[in-house]
Each structure stands twice: as structure tokens, then as C-alpha cells.
Argininosuccinate synthase (Ligilactobacillus pabuli), 1620 residues
Amino acid sequence: MTKEKVVLAYSGGLDTSVEIAWLKNAGYDVIACCIDVGEEKDLVQIQAKGRQVGAVASVVIDAKQEFAEEYCLPALQAHAYYEGEYPLVSALSRPLIAKKLVEVAQQYQATTIAHGCTGKGNDQVRFETEIHALAPELKIEDPIRDQHMSREMEIEYAKENGIPVPITKESPYSIDENLWGRANECGILEDPWATAPEDAYERTTALEKTPDTPTYLEISFEQGVPVALDGQQYPLHELIQVVNQVAGQHGIGRIDHVENRLIGIKSREIYECPGAEVLLTAHKDLEDLTTTNDLAHFKPLIEKEIADTIYNALWYTPLFDALKAFLAESQKEVNGTVRVKLFKGNVICEGRKSKNSLYDMNLATYTAADSFDQEAAAGFIKLYSLPSTVHTQVQQQLAKAPEMQ
Amino acid sequence: MTKEKVVLAYSGGLDTSVEIAWLKNAGYDVIACCIDVGEEKDLVQIQAKGRQVGAVASVVIDAKQEFAEEYCLPALQAHAYYEGEYPLVSALSRPLIAKKLVEVAQQYQATTIAHGCTGKGNDQVRFETEIHALAPELKIEDPIRDQHMSREMEIEYAKENGIPVPITKESPYSIDENLWGRANECGILEDPWATAPEDAYERTTALEKTPDTPTYLEISFEQGVPVALDGQQYPLHELIQVVNQVAGQHGIGRIDHVENRLIGIKSREIYECPGAEVLLTAHKDLEDLTTTNDLAHFKPLIEKEIADTIYNALWYTPLFDALKAFLAESQKEVNGTVRVKLFKGNVICEGRKSKNSLYDMNLATYTAADSFDQEAAAGFIKLYSLPSTVHTQVQQQLAKAPEMQ
Amino acid sequence: MTKEKVVLAYSGGLDTSVEIAWLKNAGYDVIACCIDVGEEKDLVQIQAKGRQVGAVASVVIDAKQEFAEEYCLPALQAHAYYEGEYPLVSALSRPLIAKKLVEVAQQYQATTIAHGCTGKGNDQVRFETEIHALAPELKIEDPIRDQHMSREMEIEYAKENGIPVPITKESPYSIDENLWGRANECGILEDPWATAPEDAYERTTALEKTPDTPTYLEISFEQGVPVALDGQQYPLHELIQVVNQVAGQHGIGRIDHVENRLIGIKSREIYECPGAEVLLTAHKDLEDLTTTNDLAHFKPLIEKEIADTIYNALWYTPLFDALKAFLAESQKEVNGTVRVKLFKGNVICEGRKSKNSLYDMNLATYTAADSFDQEAAAGFIKLYSLPSTVHTQVQQQLAKAPEMQ
Amino acid sequence: MTKEKVVLAYSGGLDTSVEIAWLKNAGYDVIACCIDVGEEKDLVQIQAKGRQVGAVASVVIDAKQEFAEEYCLPALQAHAYYEGEYPLVSALSRPLIAKKLVEVAQQYQATTIAHGCTGKGNDQVRFETEIHALAPELKIEDPIRDQHMSREMEIEYAKENGIPVPITKESPYSIDENLWGRANECGILEDPWATAPEDAYERTTALEKTPDTPTYLEISFEQGVPVALDGQQYPLHELIQVVNQVAGQHGIGRIDHVENRLIGIKSREIYECPGAEVLLTAHKDLEDLTTTNDLAHFKPLIEKEIADTIYNALWYTPLFDALKAFLAESQKEVNGTVRVKLFKGNVICEGRKSKNSLYDMNLATYTAADSFDQEAAAGFIKLYSLPSTVHTQVQQQLAKAPEMQ
């Protein structure tokens, strides 16, 4: 009789290695599946380890390009910051990983997907909600959470099942990362009054050690997609990597935030998003030049909803499809180049130009070239202020003759 | 026969000095009125000059405290940035200046208020809309705009009317400033691709010249009002001045923005708001700690409306009163202290604490002190993902049996 | 040794009578508590029955006035319709009932509150969330739900414990009602294609049987509170009752709605809200006359959030307090009288007048009395259309000379 | 030498006939252009009259189909009501008429477009803004407004220029109508306390005279488009006409509203939109069945923005394109049939069904078929109420030990 198959989101670490053993012991054939969204993992080694600790198959997927083009890009164009503070990071990769797991499950005819999230984080909600949205027929297992395995129990279980136990001291931090950023929680960070120590950061240089010379970048966009740096074209995922590297050297993109998780608690995390910070700033600056006022003033409501929808794991929903349709339409004229100065943690947009620029120097100038009809202003002001005028007149009348009412 | 009286918003500069003469020649008794909202003007000298160039009375008003407490404070608590970019600056002082002009007009029984705004800026709309909203019975004059006086004509008119003409070369910039920031347009800035030159800035040190040692500040808030720095109490307007000074030295608060004016054109301006930037960042950080998720996630809509309402000169409206009522209620638990590091243009919130902190370490921790009920997550996820699950089931059924529909 | 005490939300029906027995058997002293929010219950009989089936105390509370003034009123002023369809009904009474239960628990030093909600409705979420928000130290019991007692098991348990079992056939419907309306689900209504049968309605006459003569009502409001009908003053809860009665006779306020519950499923319910429908329509009509355009155009966002916040059981939150502060401010000028015609299911606002009317006949008229400055329109249009004009000019230039870009 | 050409929006009435003469006298070759958007005009007669009173060419365009498919449809799908009260009517036809005028101008190489709107209404703003947005190079004339011609002056001018003057008494009302509805202002309606007289209505029967037997209609939608009535397919513009007729007989769709014009004044108008009312009600009812909760709860913000954007004459803007993209995406699953009862002014949705129905009877039922996991509710409630719980615990602690803070 064939065994049921389970596809496990596999990282190569202790938690998910123990889960391979546990799932195998529970009667499953385990397919380990490692998806690279920009953590710079050693996929070969992870693939080998998956087999070594008991998986019947070990799959590795380089999803960086898809992650950049389908997941980071809408977040960029929507200026998606969670709670106005950080550019989403983990929430962005979860739907892609869920999709890849479901694809592998369908390919292997697995009945089940397993993951190793804790019971108090956002990720369990995200993985499970997004898997349900893609394939409600699949079951979900999370042995570490559901068996209440502590670190000690895991090590015990690993030893019993021939799984290598790391000999280095465990990091105090819990880290997740991808192309768009790096998230870090736990340890000393759990005290919101404590300064985050320098060893909590990895992608960004401390301001005290950044270069004393700025880097200037000209970032070019076509329809809201960053396509070139200083005139050189890059595929999006490579462009993000380049900007991450340069901006990280200048100490750009550190964020320290107490956030509301979707499971109802506050947590304190630090983020490093050097590339995202630069691209988000430049993209907004170009939109300021190319987008009409009506669209520019309404889009923030869409942006907030997109950020919340991503954070809340509603990527695969009709709502998100509709939001993306709005977003795509809004990007058609976001063409041009922004010149940014990267220096001492700052992203400074010094200049911007576009064939779609709606800035009209002849209208804006105070020089003789002025083509603005200043006479029109009087009429405009008269009608613009009419509601307030009438309102105050009524108030004045009431104040004068209250007895007449 | 007595003449009609006009109250003129008087700055001491050429434009409004010429306006005194013009209004006098037009048959008015002119009351010059200069209101200090934090430009550090020489009020004594301006008062004297007003009389000297022909005003029958010259009034000066130090409105810094009122400006801080009644105008900057709601902008701070609402995290009011125009177009997500800069903290409003000029738009904030206009309603207060309009109110003071109306008060003086009522005191002197004037029939008219005069100002010297150009015909293509926001300020003419703001002054006139706000004056109409306060006293619709008052007439408004703007001779420079309505007589189409060019710079050359003004100088001619000044000479004819015994008004001193400045001998220094005219600044290429058009500047407005107050406690909350400094706005600068015109000159080379009219080219949005050009880097703003260093001489366009005044309140902030260039990053290249900022100190190599950070300044740390502990900013304490009571009900959303910043009340103390490093434990020392300040009245709000003085606190803003102190922070302006310290943050300016660290090069904080430069903003370069292409914005949509309310008269329908785009303009490019640069801003310097060192103190505002620090206070806004710290206040938001404290709110993250003390505000419940539901309020934190809705407040941004109110914030955006407040920013737009201020920018659009709707300060004295029932809408703004209602928005302020929401805002005041939202600040009741924003008590506590934020520790910020000011360094190389960056405002870094390193720690925050509050008696109203909603961060519960026993819920958030991953240590043994954990009091979070991880079992509850399974039920939560089940119901949370139910709508997506049902939706996908329906889609799958349709895909399987399209002919049955 | 003293027993723990539990306060049970008691209706007098089979479910909650069985719960008295169950809680008693589980070792509690039970305080039965029946709160009247406008169902026209026989409180004396319910109080007696509570004691009779085993409660150590039986408390009845007439909360109609408080319900009208503190709960219905904000819903009225906020034009709160869930999903744009019905005026909330059950969601409105839950926070008041929770508050009364907590007050009784504190008075009796009870440790626990019990209710009899099913496991798939909104009410369990509402009662428990609102009790937690008022008194997180109280435990909550729901024996019917948690013991999975079916109707048959309940009858069995009743017989064993000397509880009278109703001999009439059980209604197919599940009904909840209060001053603001009546909600009905279950039975044939579970088929959304089926027409709701006439016996599902109770408060409203079928259109086919309504009078052939309309009723006219002049409803007067002070600061957004309905205070008089045809000039006669009423306390709010009585005014609602009167309007319910009159409007019900005219068949007003039937609503048939498929809604999204907060636990993630859709359900179909019918509602009868005759009085609410009339008051909501009249109040909106008066606001149209007395509210400035800026407030009128923003308030709907607040209204939607208020409706959702009430539906989602977030009454006792800082968010709701802030929303109510906005609302209260918005009502200051909602004074005046609306003349409505009630006829054949229709609420027709035929006329409205107010000392705060912002309708200015001299501005609006097309007769010779016209005081509107038609010249101003040209200037207004010029600036109003400027962004579109510039945008199209840029597009035209691009279309003409694509190679030049 | 050739004359400049002007395209005049021509209705056949006195105003625009006088304008033909005036424009001709001003040196233009006039092309009269009459566009039928559902007023049931006698196009042949209007075309002849245009030539007769002096136009060099007279063009008539039946735009009913385009109006229904491109203009009414998004308004339907967006549930677009202005100020929550009426389905837009005039605002919907203006962009189409503007577009047709521009097309004719381009075809005839005209330099100018002329219209006959008054100087205090919305229509002048709409026509001119929308013409500018389509063809900023065209000039615009409005002789009646700009020459301040009163009714008497018009009649004088008509007589002098051989234009037939109507001998019937002028209607007291000012009426605009199209497929989607009929708008009526002026006369006695200018008093907002006065009941609109019966002669103000034309498309709807007075409730007192409607049939005593209801009409039942099954309205079928495909992707949000109404395609069939009682199973019979219709092109959209015919379907609207049929529903207008049936619903009008039942007295459906009368609306009496005091509204905020975009030029800053309030006006009182009455509307008749029988077909729109029925289709809007049925479409919303079907969405309630087929749309997921997340989309259903966000779409109202888009709907409000669409209504405002249309009202405010911003049809031809990038914002409106983006809003339409959202809307189109939201309609993909709005398939199915709604059974409505039309009776005595009421539109009653009695039943609805869809292959895309998200109502799952097995989840919703309270019978034995129940497949809802009631256990999950406990976990859901626990996390759902966690923020309120923590908030209250903090408040309680502060209340107990205020001195410790």
C-alpha cells in the first residue's frame, strides 16, 4: 500500500529536519522542498541534507525572478509599507512559497503540506490561509507547533532519529529574509526600550562606518518598473540585488518597529531593506512628477489596502486581483529617471525627469515666461470658498437673532 | 468724512510696503499688521517701517505660542504630511494669520483685509478662503496681483512714493517659514532635474558637515503632546525651537518635492523641517506602542484627510472640527518616552516606553514566560481562511463541470 | 464553602433554562439576568421562571431608554447600515447586554458570565469580545455550544432536571429583536432563492394589506437627535416605538439580505426595521440641507467604519470612542424638521427646513433674485480643468513625436 | 476667406437656436450637433430645424447604445449614487456628449465648441472640463452665459434673427434626461420645504395610481452586465428602456434631494430613475451572493470615488481609468439571476441564485447537515478579542496603581 505524501517547506535547519523525521514516523513519504526567494541559500547542500535526513525526494527551486517580478513589484508600485513603517518583507514571500508548495504537491500527488511555523506568529496564518486559497483540498501539518516541541525536545528527537544537531550556539534571533528585506525578532529585541545591538543587523553598515563619499544612482523606470541603473539595464531581481548591495553599504534601510500582528499581539522587530527603501523612494518621486493630482491623491487609499491585504495573507483573493488591476493602470505613465544620492543612511532624490512629466515650467515659473492665467484665480477662489462663506453667514445670522428661530 | 480702513498683512518687505502706498493712494487708512509665527523677525523694526511708509497704525503680534499649540500640534498628532512628503509648513500658518488679521480688522473696524500673494500660488486661495470663513463681510484686496505689478513696476512705484528700495540683489528664491518649517521655491529650483544648491538651505547643515557624534534625545509625550526633552519640561513652542536647532545641526529634515498645488499646477519646492521631522517620527513610534490595532489601522485615513484639509485651506470648517475631535480622542493614551538618535540626517527611534504600552512581553516572547495560547491559532486560522476556502471550492467546481451551469 | 457565581444572560426560553440547570449541576450559583432592549418581554414572568428552574437570583433590567440613547442614536446619526443593507439590529444590543451582565457580575461578585449562543453565529463573538473588553478577568461559559447539546439532548436534560418543556411546535425561525429592529434567520430562509414567507414577518404589514391613505409625519431633530413628531416631544425610546408602529402599518422597513458574518460565512436573513428606516431617511435628508459639502462628502467613510466597528463587536475600543467624537461634532448643526410621507412601504421626504439650512435660495434660484456671481465660473473652470488639460497636452505631444523621447 | 467653424451642442430649443444665430453673427460657420442619449427626441425634426435657423450643417447622432454600454454600465456596477441619494443622471451623459462634440469638431475641422449651459450649474463645468480633457486645443463658447442673455433678450434676439419663438407658456422646470434617469429643478422646487407637485414627474406613476398587482422580473447578469429579463436577452440600452417602462408604471425611482453642486452651492432637484433603481438594487443583491467579504467590504470606497469622479467631471482622467480597471476585475464572478418584485414604488429582491454563489448551505444551516467547525470559534474569539483584552488589562492596572507610573 502506498503511503500518503507530504510536501514540507524545508529550510535545512534543525526545526524542519526534525519535521522530516516526525512526518516519516507518522507514516508519510516526505518531499522536502526548499524555495529560494533571495536568502542566498546553498541550495545544493540543502537538497542533499533533505534526502540525508529522510525525505524520499528533495526539491529545490530558485524563485528569485518570479519573486521580484510578481511579488516585489506590486509592493514597490503600491509603496506598500506596513503601518507606514516597513516594506512588508516576510508577508511578500509567503504567497509565492505557498504557491510553489502547492505546485510540488500537485506534481507529486501529495495530500498534505507541512511547515514549521510557530504558533504565535503571522507566518502560520499566512501559509495556511494562502494554501487553503490555492488548494483547499490539501491538508496541513505543523508538527513542531502541534506537538508543542520545545528546543530541547527537538534536539532529543533529532538525536534519536539520526539528524545532525548544530554544535554552534543558537542565535538569539529569529530571522527571515528575502530579496526585499530581512526581518529580525527575539532575544534582546523583545524589550522595546532596548537599543537593537549591532549584531542584529547584517545587510546594512552601521552609520558610523559608512563611506564619507556618497554614491549617486540614476534609476530609470518604464511603466513603474525599475529597468536600469545609470543607464544599464537589469532584470528586476538582479537590479534589486545591486541596489541592496550599494544601499546597504551606505547604511540605508534600517527600521525598528513595534507592530500589530494579525493574531492580535504587538511585537517588536527590526528590518533591513536597503534596496527596497531606495526603489520605493525613487518610484514615489517619479510618480510625483508624472501622475495627475486626482490619481495621486486617491492612490494612497489603494496603497494602504494593498499593504494590509498582503500583510493579512489575502494575496490570492478577488480583492487583491482588483487592487492589482487599479495599480497596473496607475503605472502606465510612470516613465522616467530619478537621480538619487545615497549617503549616510539617507536616500535623497535630487532630480527627476520624464517624457510624461506633468510639471510645466511655463505654468509654474515666476519668470517672464509665465503662461498661467492669474485672472482665473479670483473666480476660482470665489466658488471654492463659497460653501464656507455661506456656512459662516448662517452662523452669524443665528448668533445675531437666536430668538427668531 | 472718515476713510475706509484696511488691515494689511505686512512683512516689512518691498511688496507689502508698496501695497501700503497703493492702498493709501486708493483712499484707505492702512493698518499694517505683522504676525510672527516663528520666522524670528525683527518685529520692532517692521513695526516702525510700517508707520514710516504710510500706515496709520502698525501692529505686531507674537503668535508663536498659539501657533505651536493650536496649529502645529494637530498637524503633529495627525502625522500630517502633504502627499506623503512634507509636513505642510505654509499651509499651517495661513489660518492663524487670517484669524489675527480678522481680529485686528474687527478691533479697528476695518472693512477690508489686504495681502500680497501672487496669483498662482496656494496662499492667495488660503488667505482669502480662510478670511471668508471667518468674516465673510470683509472685502479683500491684493493690489500686486490685481494691478499686475511686476518687480520693475513695484520699484518704480516705491521710488515715486518714498519707499526705500532694497539695494542688495534680490534673492532668486521665494521663501516662507515658521516654527514648523521653511519652504523655498523659484530660481534654479524651477528645474526639477536640477540639484537644489546648498544656498537654498538655511535651517539644516549639509550632511557633509554634520557632527560625527550623534545626539540622543529622550522625548516625552503626555496625551500626544511633546512636553519634555531629556526630562526637562518646555512650553511647546520652545520645545519645537530647541529640537529645530539640534536636529538642524544634524542635517535632518531636508525634503525636495514636486507637489500638486490646489490651483491645479505642479510646482517643485524644497523644505527644511528638522524639528517637525524628529517630533513626527517620535510621536508615530510612541503611537505604535500605545495604540490598539483597530485605531492604528484606521487613523491614517483621518490623517490623510487632515493633511488635505489643512493644505486645502479648510481649517475653519465643520469638517475640520470633526476631524480634530477624532484626533483629540485618539491621543488620550499616547503617553510615554521615545529615545531618538539624531545622526547624519537620520532620526532613529532606538527605544520607547509607556505606562500605556500595549506591548505585552509575556504574550510576545518566545521564551518560557510565554502566556500566549498557541492552540487558539488553529481555530483562528480556520475561520479566518474560510471565505477564501469557500471561494476556491466554488471556482474548482466550476472548472470541473462548466457544462453543468 | 461558597460556590462560584455565574451570571447567565437569561431569556426565559428552553436553551437558557437548560443552561441554568447545567451550570447549577456544574457547581455554580446561577444568577439569571434578563435585559429588555425592546422585545416587549414579560419581565415578571421571566424573572419568576428564572428562580423556578434553579437560579439563586433572578434579575430583570429594563434597558430600553439607555439602549435608545446610547446605542441606537449613534447608529442613527452614522447612517449605519451593514453592507449598505440593514441597520445592524442585533449588533447594536450586544454591547449593552454585555455591559449589563458585567455590572450584575460585579454586583454579585460572580467570576463567570454565561450565554447561550450557537457556535456559528456572530453573537458568541460579540458577547465574548465585548465582555473581555469590559472585564477581562471574568470567565465565560456557553454550555449549549461547548457541550454540543442538540435540541433533543436539551429536551432530555430539561425533563431530567424538572424544567418545563414547551409543548407547542418549535418555530422554524431563529429571531432576535430590539427597539431598532427584528432579525430572522433559519428555516426556509436558508434557501436564498426562496421568497421569505409572510409568517416570517411580524412588525410590518404586507404591502398588499397596507392602508390606501398615507401618513404624514413631521420629524424634528435637535443636534441630530429626533425629539418630536408633529411637534410633540418624546423621549427617544418612546419616539422610536411610535415610529415603529406607524411605519410598520405602512409596510416600511422589510429587508432581505445575504450577508457576510464575521466568522467567515455568508448567511441569509430578513429584517424588519420600520422605525429605523424612517428615522435614518429623515436624518440623512436633514443633513443634506444643513451640512457643508466637505463634511457631507467625508462623513460616509466614518459612517462605514462605524457600521463595521459595531458589527464587528468593537464597541468598547478607543477606535469607537474616536469615531463617536467625530460623529458628535458632526451633529451640532443638524437641527430642523423633515416632513415624511409614509405610504405603501415607502418613506418619502417631501420637505425639509432648518435654521441651519445652507441652501440659499438667492444663490440657487434661476429667477431675477439671483445673487450668484456667474462670472466667477469661468475662472473656476479654467483652474479646475488645468490638470486634465496639461495631462492631455503631454499625451498629445507624445503621440505626435514618439521618436523624440 | 474661410470662416472659423464651431460645433454647437444643439437641442432644438430656443436657447441653442438663438446661439446658432449669435455664433453666425459672430462670424462662425455653425455645425449644429444633436446627440440622443435616451431623451426620445425627434431627431429628424431637430436636424431640419438646425439648418433652418442658420447652421451650415446639422448632425444628429443616436448614442443610446454607446451611452448604455460605456457610461451607464460602470455607474451600475459601481452602485454610483451621488451623495448616497441618486444615480447621477446628467453627470453620466456629459462625458459622452463632450466626446461626440469633439469627434464632430475634428471631422469638420472646427476650432471651437459651443454649448448653452447656465453660469451656475454643474454642466458648464462638466462640458468644458471634459472637452479640455479630450481636446485642449479647442476653444469653447457659451454665448447665452457670456452675453448674460435673459429670457426676454433671447426672445428679442430670436425675433430679429427669424428664429421661431415657442408660443406655449414656458415650463417652470429645467429638465435634463437620458436613459439612466430624468432630472428636474427650478420653479416651486426651489423651495426645499415644498412638496414636489405631481406635474414635476413624467417617467413614474404616482403611488396612488400604480397597479394593485406586482410585476415579477427575473434579471440575469453575466460578469455584472444585465443581459436578460425573464430569460429573454436584450442589448443593454433596450433592457434599460424596458425596465424603465415597467418600473415607472409601479412608481419606482422618484428621488427628492438637496445636493451640493461642484460650484459650491446647494440646490434641490427631483429625479426619476425607475430602471436604474431596479437594476442597481438587483445588481447589489447579486454581488452580496457572489462576492467575497474582503472585496465586498472594500468596494464601497471605490464606488464612492467613482460616483464623485463622475459627478466632478473627471471621466477622462487616469484616475477614472484606474477605478474602472478595479471595477471590471470585481465583476468577473457577478453571474446569476435575481428575482425582483416591483410593487407600489418598491423594488424587492425576493430571491437570488448563481453558479458563483458563495453562500454554502452546509456551512450556514442550523440543521443536521451542518459542516461548520464550531470548535474553531473558541480559538477565533480568543485571538480576535486579544487586543481589547490587553488594552483593558492595561487600563485596569493604571486605574489600580496610578501612583506607580
Q: What stands out?
A: Residues 174-291+333-353 of chain B form a domain with the Argininosuccinate synthetase, chain A, domain 2 fold (CATH 3.90.1260.10). Chain B is about 45% helix and 20% strand.
